[in-house]
Amino acid sequence: MAFDKNVFINCPFDNDFRPLLKALVFELIYLGFSPKLSQTLSSSSIRVNEIKNLIRTCKFGIHDLSRSKAMIIGELPRFNMPYELGLDIGALEFGSKNLKTKKILILETEKYHYQKVISDIAGQDIENHDDDPKTLITKVRNWFSANFPEETLVVQSVIWIAYNQFIDDLGSNLSGTYTEEEIEEMPIGDFIKFVTDWITEFKVRDVDV
Questions:
Q1: Calpha distance 36→9 (Å, rounded)
Q2: Which domains does the chain have, with CATH numbers?
Q3: Which of 7, 35, 55, 158 has the smallest number of CB atoms closer than 10 Å to its CB?
Q4: In angstroms, how far apart are the furthest CA atoms of the chain?
Q5: Is 185 left (phi over 0), alpha (psi -120 to 50) or beta?
Q6: DSSP annotation of 125
Q7: For the whole model, what pTM was predicted?
Q8: What is the tens place of the pLDDT at every residue in 132-148?
């Protein structure tokens, strides 16, 4: 059962991408999925082996390629994201019967950018988010809705409102023990724990009301 709810996230972990990653992680947990990221792994592990192990345990893969290009003049593109996408597609194509049920979403900033430079991914699900967390939440929610046609998922506006409430509550609740910088830059593993606890309490309150 865990396989069907696990989502492998392949994305940049820099500060510029952090608002998008936070929104994505919150949305996945809110929808009942379990985000799996290589950044939560032990630093003593061989990274590529741990990534392959994560991919094996996840039915869904969300791959953001928006930073797989030079962001400033003279900077080299980051190719680890396309590499991990290739591993996930390989698992889908050549893996066991279970892995052949995998679903993969590719995210980018600009519409059709990566279809121009990586033509072989044209048959995959590709969405652009314009570097906007709200747009990302909408695109990911609609992708899951398409993959679960028998279910009615909560609308994106509800997720977005809940996310902003969580961010406000997180700042208020941690202000006495964390600095603003520590809250903003907390490890993603800690962020997942806070999100999970908050959503559990939020949904209990919602039911009680």
A1: 6
A2: 2-208 (3.40.50)
A3: 158
A4: 56
A5: alpha
A6: E
A7: 0.88
A8: 999 999 999 999 999 99
